[in-house]
């Protein structure tokens, strides 16, 4: 990974992110959050509050653009939540207020068996998926030449939690692996359909959250249930895919590196240096500044330390580990690109 | 001192040898099972394997044979869950396996709980548990509740999306002195602090010990919010609850 070579001509954000996703040289390491940078401060700044900014394309695009216009990140991610696809599949949503993310009511599952799984005919025209597609079109038109526009489609494991309930889904995965695989195989159609629709709307890359986290399931589970599906997604969704899995993932990084996905968005529970060593430049790494303890609760100096730790380790793109707490300060977020620029200058001076 | 050879059930012996590494935990676990009668070891073994039908059958059979409900709970179900908790903490098993064991424990408790309730055994304490406002995640909380009940606490489960007022009302209504809050989302974690502030505003903070937990929650965060304790997992939650209770008694 070339994290700031003087020989690389100056790039704009889009060029920088796309090069990093291909693990090609960049003029400096891009700053990117493939999940969400929405905060209450940013909502107030552009008058685009939750929950409306998750339902109306114009508000969604306006709030998302602040990641570039206000924070100076190299990408724009308009899909702040993980519920848009599930809502369109028929899940009940608790929409919440400005200061909290909407959540799927997982205690009220919509499917129980593989035979229940149906992708509704209006899946892509439903308000909450259509809004994402429209927001991507708006952002592509307005900022598409400057920064990378990143979409998001949920993986089947996460859809399983949402549509079948976390406990029933996890128990099924233990009791009946064949049935579980059938469910995943049917739910993957939603992942692919929504992913391809975002490609057609103009997305440069797609985040694919699929929460087979080490806080819930083993690395062996990832190999058994998801590795092949993720290979299939990388083949069928023909733009770079950024896999996102929260929590501890060290024990499944080897399998993730085999999927052909462009990048892995990783959590601060994994050491940057060790993660880079496992991935061996087979997949780009994005992350992993801690959200609750650092970005939310500490100050710019602590943020800077984590940025530098990632840069020193050789991660390909730096950013928060996951969707940031909505009360995170703009000051802390702005520190990320500042720290990257300073580090790049210092490296160049050292050369 | 008890010896592992004193445990009749081969599966239990293998589990201890393979999965328990801390000397004090080996000693305690061997001690528990060595004094447990073989039928209790069998119940524990079935629970550790997540076999709810077997636990159901063996528990019913043990009661029919005249074994006390309390003994079945302590030497069979709770002893088994102790091993499960250690395996989970050490990443030998994950949530699906723990859920299967919890399901097995419930299958046994269906027989045990009515007997214990009718017998008037004094609970260790009364605990209010809930996931904080705005958060609908409850697996971790539910595991904690199951372990707390197994350890002898009476638990009032407020469910998910619990407001500060609901916690306060429950504490007053049930005259509980312990409370646990759970959060999975970084957006909802601050609601733990807001709930604690609400207890201060209501002049009730000194009347209740407050525990917090959840995947993104840390000891540091718990301290910053002014919680009385942080539990990393369900086993730690039970230990914390016992410690807070004994501190309260000593005070």
In short:
The complex is a heterodimer of chains A (351) and B (251). Chain A is α/β, with parallel strands linked by helices and 351 residues long.
- The helix tally of chain B amounts to 11
Q: What is the strand arrangement across the widest sheet of chain A?
A: 1-4-5-6-7-8-9
CATH class of chain A: Alpha Beta
Low-confidence stretches of chain B: none
Strand content of chain B: 5-15%
CATH fold annotation of the largest domain in chain B: Rossmann fold
CATH class of the largest domain in chain B: Alpha Beta
Number of domains of chain A: 1
Tell me about the biggest sheet of chain B?
5 strands, parallel
Amino-to-carboxy terminus distance of chain B: 34 Å
CATH topology of chain A: TIM Barrel
Percent range of helical residues of chain B: 55-70%
Tell me the number of strands of chain B: 5
What class do helices, strands and sheet pairing of chain A give?
Answer: alpha/beta
Radius of gyration of chain B: 19 Å
CATH homology superfamily name of the largest domain in chain B: Cobalamin-binding domain
Task: Give a description of the structure.
The complex is a heterodimer of chains A (351) and B (251). Chain A has 351 residues and is an alpha/beta fold. Chain A is 48% helix and 10% strand. Chain A has helices at 13-21, 40-46, 57-69, 84-89, 127-143, 156-164, 166-175, 177-201, 219-236, 253-257, 272-279, 291-295, 300-313, 330-350, and strands at residues 75-76, 93-94, 103-104, 148-152, 205-209, 241-244, 263-266, 284-289, 317-320. Chain A has a seven-stranded parallel sheet. In chain A, a hairpin with an 8-residue loop joins strand 2 (93-94) and strand 3 (103-104). Chain A is globular and about 60 Å long. The model of chain A has no long low-confidence stretch (mean pLDDT 95). By secondary structure, chain B is an alpha/beta fold. Chain B folds into two domains: 4-119, Orthogonal Bundle (Methyltransferase, Methionine Synthase (B12-binding Domains), Chain A, domain 1), CATH 1.10.1240; 126-250, Cobalamin-binding domain (Rossmann fold, 3-Layer(aba) Sandwich). Chain B is 61% helix and 9% strand. Chain B is built from eleven helices and five strands. Chain B has helices at residues 10-19, 23-35, 38-48, 52-64, 69-89, 95-119, 139-150, 164-174, 190-201, 219-225, 234-250, and strands at residues 126-131, 154-157, 178-182, 209-213, 229-230. Chain B has a five-stranded parallel sheet with strand order 2-1-3-4-5, sandwiched between helices. In chain B, helix 7 (139-150) links the parallel strand 1 (126-131) and strand 2 (154-157). Chain B is globular and about 55 Å long. Classes of the chains: A alpha/beta (351), B alpha/beta (251). The interface between A and B is medium-sized, with 35 and 31 residues.
């Amino acid at each position: 990974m070339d994290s700031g070579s003087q020989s690389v001509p100056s790039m704009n954000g889009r060029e920088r992110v796309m090069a990093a996703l291909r693990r090609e040289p960049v003029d400096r390491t891009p700053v990117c959050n493939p999940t969400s940078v929405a905060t209450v401060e940013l909502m107030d700044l552009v008058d685009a509050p939750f929950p409306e900014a998750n339902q109306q394309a114009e508000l969604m695009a306006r709030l998302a653009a602040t990641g570039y216009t206000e924070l100076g990140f190299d990408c724009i991610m308009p899909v702040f939540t993980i519920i848009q696809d599930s809502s369109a599949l028929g899940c009940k949503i608790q929409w919440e207020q400005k200061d909290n993310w909407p959540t799927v009511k997982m205690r009220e599952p919509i499917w129980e068996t593989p035979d229940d799984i149906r992708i509704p005919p209006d899946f892509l025209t439903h308000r909450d998926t259509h809004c994402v597609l429209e927001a991507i079109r708006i952002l592509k038109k307005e900022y598409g030449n400057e920064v990378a526009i990143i979409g998001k489609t949920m993986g089947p494991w996460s859809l399983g939690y949402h549509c079948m309930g976390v406990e029933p889904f996890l128990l099924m995965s233990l009791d009946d692996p064949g049935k579980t695989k059938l469910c995943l195989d049917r739910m993957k159609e939603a992942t692919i359909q929504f992913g391809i629709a975002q490609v057609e709307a103009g997305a440069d890359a797609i985040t694919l959250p699929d929460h087979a986290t080490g806080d819930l399931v083993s690395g062996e589970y990832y190999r058994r249930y998801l590795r092949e599906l993720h290979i299939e997604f990388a083949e069928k969704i023909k733009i770079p895919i950024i896999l996102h899995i929260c929590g501890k993932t060290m024990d499944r990084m080897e399998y993730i590196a085999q999927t052909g996905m462009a990048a892995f968005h990783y959590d601060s529970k994994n050491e940057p240096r060790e993660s880079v060593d496992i991935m061996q430049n087979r997949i780009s790494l994005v992350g992993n500044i801690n959200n609750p303890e650092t970005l939310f609760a500490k100050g710019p100096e602590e943020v800077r330390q984590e940025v530098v730790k990632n840069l020193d380790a050789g991660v390909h793109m730096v950013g928060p580990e996951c969707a940031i707490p909505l009360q995170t300060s703009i000051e802390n977020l702005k520190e990320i690109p500042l720290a990257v620029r300073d580090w790049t200058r210092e490296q160049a001076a050292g050369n | 001192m008890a010896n592992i050879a004193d445990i009749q059930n081969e599966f239990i012996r293998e589990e201890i040898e393979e999965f328990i590494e801390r000397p004090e935990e080996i000693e305690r676990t061997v001690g528990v099972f060595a004094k447990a009668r073989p039928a209790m070891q069998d119940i524990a073994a079935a629970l550790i394997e997540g076999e709810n039908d077997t636990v159901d059958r063996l528990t019913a059979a043990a009661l029919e044979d005249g074994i006390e409900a309390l003994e079945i709970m302590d030497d069979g179900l709770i002893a088994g869950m102790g091993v499960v908790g250690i395996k989970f903490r050490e990443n030998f098993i994950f949530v699906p396996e723990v859920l299967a064991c919890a399901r097995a424990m419930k299958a046994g408790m269906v027989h045990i709980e009515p007997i214990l309730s009718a017998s008037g055994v004094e609970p260790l304490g009364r605990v209010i548990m809930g996931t904080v406002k705005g958060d609908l995640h409850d697996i971790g909380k539910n595991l904690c509740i199951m372990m707390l009940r197994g350890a002898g606490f009476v638990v009032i489960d407020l469910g998910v999306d619990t407001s500060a007022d609901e916690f306060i009302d429950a504490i007053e209504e049930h005259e509980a002195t312990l409370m646990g809050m759970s959060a999975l989302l970084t957006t909802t974690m601050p609601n733990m602090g807001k709930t604690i502030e609400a207890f201060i505003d209501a002049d009730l903070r000194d009347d209740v010990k407050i525990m917090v937990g959840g995947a993104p929650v840390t000891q540091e965060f718990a301290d910053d919010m002014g919680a009385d304790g942080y539990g990393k997992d369900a086993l730690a939650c039970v230990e914390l609850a016992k410690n807070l209770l004994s501190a309260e008694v000593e005070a």
